[in-house]
Amino acid sequence: MSDTTSFDPRQHRMVPTRWFEDFTLGEKFVLPSRTMTDALFAAFQLASGDNHPVHYDVEYCRARGMPNMLAHGFQVVAQTCGGAGLFAHYVEDSLKGFIEQSSRFLGMVFVGDTLYATLEVSELVPQRTTGLLTLKSTVHNQRGELVMDGLQKYLLKKRPA
Q1: pLDDT along the chain (161 residues), means of 10
Q2: Confidence (pTM)
Q3: Which DSSP category does 20 fall into?
Q4: Which domain holds residue 89?
Q5: How far apart are CA 120 and CA 73, in angstroms?
Q6: 133 touches 118 (CB < 8 A)
Q7: Which CATH number is 36's domain given?
Q8: Distance, CA of 14 to CA of 60 (rounded, Å)
Q9: Any idea what DSSP says for residue 26?
């Protein structure tokens, strides 16, 4: 027989809630690595609707000197999704909005590459009841090359009184 009277689904969490003032400059959130497979390329093409052959035709790519299909920039950016790691779980109750994103593409990503994404707190701007948290996003490949960097900005609530 199970005791359901003491269970509260609102308390079923991976990590405790963090508020704006709980974050520190330089704090890092490492995201799981991911190898870019043919299946991921196909799924991204299906979701994005992008139909340029550089992203789905390996022979087209080889004819242009590339070793395999080239990842779309947004497919690389998607590896920095805060929800892929613990960050999104920390801000379940404090997140008011994901308000800005920028990125620079610094190297090519092909089928078979393994990507390693990290988010790092780079700026904290307190406001009256909220704060603006900026995360620097980086993506490296298996050779240690930085293939993408950028910023993500989140509006977070401050700790309730």
Answers
A1: 76 93 98 97 94 95 97 97 95 97 98 98 98 98 98 97 85
A2: 0.92
A3: G
A4: 18-157
A5: 20
A6: no
A7: 3.10.129.10
A8: 45
A9: T
